[in-house]
Amino acid sequence: MTYDPENVFAKILRGEIPAKKLYEDDVALAFPDLHPQAPTHVLVIPKGPYKNHDDFSAHATDAEIAGFTRAIGKVIDITGAADQGYRLIANCGAHGGQEVPHYHVHILAGRKLGRMLPSAS
Ligand code: AMP
If you measure from the C-alpha of residue 17 to the centroid of ligand 1, how many angstroms do you get, rounded to a whole number? Predict the structure, then answer.
């Protein structure tokens, strides 16, 4: 699957869809999730056209990878999520439940988040 430049996060990066910018630098942008699943629910995305983590790790530059990792840390700091703890999630591909095909990391915080995965049934 090639990168789809019409995905919603690509449109946010191009300014075609609004988003409240919580953090931005050369390589990353952070904004609140449209449908928050915790009191703090922020998405951090790289600015480059990467579909998911394996695409990002294989094709992004070292500067993009380092900058993106540090950007996540800065957003954790900005939101105060580190005080009580938080969860990072990167859904990738069909089995990962990825809805938007532009790599993103969810930062979830502000309440006890429960089990990592629902029990198998
Ligand atoms: P994922 O399943 O990891 O691909 O999750 C995609 C996330 O993007 C979901 O949690 C959506 O609520 C969120 N989302 C979709 N459209 C927007 C938007 N325009 N602004 C902010 N978040 C969005």
Answer: 12
